[in-house]
């Protein structure tokens, strides 16, 4: 039944204009404002919808991941565009000087690298 459905992602934001600037200009995505919010059309046919919510509370988990061919290049380019990455130094989660968490890259051990950042509404995004 759902295997033929064209699923999409959605999450709340607190300011459509700030989100449009961030997703459209800073990240370079196809971001189109609608009367209901902001539609993101991603490569490969994926679609997302960001909707304004007066009592918005950012999720404490990653809501959108961007696979990239080279994480170091992606992080460097996004930093040039003004994106601030999260830095962690805990027993379970450590990022390096470039704000990238590295792993051994073995199957089942997670991505070889991941870096988290937030949108203007505080939602966590990542490149991996």
Task: For the structure shown, list the relevant keywords.
single chain; globular; four-stranded mixed beta sheet; alpha/beta; 128 residues
Ends apart, CA distance between termini: 31 Å
The computed structural class is alpha/beta
* Spatial arrangement of strands, main beta sheet: 1-4-3-2
Number of strands: 8
For the sheet with most strands, the description reads: 4 strands, mixed
Estimate percent helicity.
10-25%
Mean pLDDT: 92
The stretches of 5 or more residues where confidence is low (pLDDT under 50) are none
- Please, how many helices? 2
Shape type: globular
Radius of gyration: 16 Å
Order of secondary-structure elements: EHEEEEHEEE
Which range does the strand content fall in? Answer: 25-35%
Overview of the structural elements:
The chain is an alpha/beta fold. It is 16% helix and 30% strand. It has helices at residues 16-26, 71-80; strands spanning 9-13, 30-34, 37-41, 47-52, 62-66, 101-102, 113-118, 124-127. A four-stranded mixed beta sheet has the order 1-4-3-2, covered by helices on one side. A four-stranded mixed beta sheet has the order 5-8-7-6. The protein starts with 8 loop residues before the first strand and ends with a strand. The mean pLDDT is 92.
């Amino acid at each position: 039944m759902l295997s033929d459905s064209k699923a999409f992602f959605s999450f709340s934001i607190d300011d459509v204009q700030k989100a449009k600037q961030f997703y459209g200009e800073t990240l370079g995505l196809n971001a189109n404002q609608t009367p209901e919010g902001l539609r993101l059309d991603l490569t490969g046919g994926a679609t997302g919808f960001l909707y304004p919510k007066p009592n918005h509370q950012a999720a404490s988990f990653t809501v959108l991941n961007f696979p990239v061919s080279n994480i170091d290049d992606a992080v460097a380019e996004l930093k040039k565009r003004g994106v601030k990455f999260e830095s962690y130094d805990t027993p379970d989660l450590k990022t390096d000087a470039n704000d990238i968490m590295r792993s051994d890259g073995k199957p089942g051990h997670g991505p070889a690298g991941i870096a988290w950042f937030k949108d203007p509404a505080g939602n966590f995004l990542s490149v991996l």
